[in-house]
Design a protein that fits this description.
The protein contains four helices and eight strands. The protein has 220 residues and is an alpha+beta fold. The longest helix has 38 residues. The relative contact order is 0.14.
Length: 220
């Protein structure tokens, strides 16, 4: 299999360039929105969507930023080796106590990674707000398989939603094996689903008892 940019020094260069692009902007917000974490996050995403081909440079052969709101990614590109990268832009304001961002569903990543040429990439921007200016402190630009499972969790939505347990703690294994990461995903889900079945059984039993209670009542 062809080697992606994540097995070279290129992705660290991209991380540094993203920090530079964000921090050279004179102002992101205005007096009305300077306290809004959502406004800052949207502004960062819009900026990166516009500037990303320039950030990538000659790595990029094709680029797409037209994705639906609930799509798997915010932007995507293909490199000169024909490898395809879907990028999910996440932002984390450093003065917030807790942030638990959704990444993707377990079904989507399983199907997407059936093709070895595909990469699902997390672009996490950690930033602070200084009046109307956004200052990027740290950027992670990594495939999901570089995220250590000790900082991930699975939420009970659909097939299961992979989440960062706390955006203040992101543990990265540079160069980690996709095969090992996907095998761990399988182990995680085989533990997760039986627990969900038990929860559903408890809820079913509750409503069974509730129904019996109401059946014993007379109509008003």
């Amino acid at each position: 299999m062809k080697r992606s940019i994540f097995y070279t020094a290129q992705y660290h260069r991209i991380e540094k360039k993203i920090v530079e692009v964000i921090n050279e902007q004179p102002s992101f917000l205005n007096a009305r929105t300077e306290g809004s974490t959502r406004a800052a996050g949207d502004a960062i995403q819009d900026l990166l969507s516009e500037k990303f081909p320039d950030i990538l440079g000659d790595i990029c052969c094709s680029y797409d930023k037209n994705f639906a709101r609930r799509a798997m990614a915010d932007l995507a590109f293909t490199d000169k080796d024909g490898l395809y990268y879907r990028v999910d832009v996440k932002t984390h304001r450093l003065d917030t106590a807790f942030n638990m961002p959704n990444l993707t569903s377990v079904e989507r990543i399983a199907r997407f990674y059936e093709d070895g040429k595909n990469y699902f990439v997390i672009l996490m921007v950690q930033y602070a707000i200084q009046r109307t200016k956004v200052k990027a402190n740290k950027v992670h630009f990594i495939p999901i398989e570089f995220l250590n499972w000790n900082c991930l969790t699975v939420g009970a939505l659909g097939w299961g939603q992979i989440q960062i347990a706390n955006a203040n703690t992101i543990n990265i294994n540079d160069g980690y094996s996709r095969k090992k990461w996907m095998l761990k995903l399988c182990d995680v889900m085989m533990e997760f689903y039986p627990r969900e079945i038990e929860k559903i059984k408890e809820r079913t039993d509750y409503f069974k008892r509730l129904k019996e209670h109401w059946q014993s009542k007379e109509d008003d």
